[in-house]
Specification:
alpha+beta
């Protein structure tokens, strides 16, 4: 029982599930082509699990695991981290495909506003 708990904490964000979500996001970005907001919403993405502060992030093509710093709030928003502006989306993602797409688009739209500051 204790071993399963420890494994659950270490792997609170399943990498395969995160990769599928990133692939879905890539398809959405490609289909939109920057039309909705006048520029592409594709860019650095981080999935963050609030209880463990575990994260899966991708800046370009490489997907990596990380820990969200204690100084960061975890929310569906844009965040400055390691010299980049990331779209942060809380994990787990909704199961419904339409509901799952909302935090991608809504919070990716925040990132270009921060670029303008």
């Amino acid at each position: 029982m204790h071993v399963l708990f420890v494994l659950g904490v270490v792997a609170s964000i399943d990498l395969a599930s995160a990769q599928r979500a990133l692939t879905e996001l890539d398809a959405m970005c490609a289909a939109d082509g920057g039309r909705m907001w006048g520029r592409s919403l594709c860019g650095p993405m981080v999935f963050a699990e609030p209880q463990t502060r575990d994260a899966v992030r991708r800046a370009s093509t490489e997907v990596e695991t990380a820990k969200i710093p204690d100084t960061f709030g975890i929310a569906n928003t844009a965040v400055e981290w390691d010299g980049r502006t990331w779209t942060m989306v809380m994990w787990p993602l909704p199961q419904n495909p339409v509901s799952r797409r909302e935090p991608f688009t809504k919070n990716s739209a925040v990132r270009p506003k921060r670029w303008a500051l």
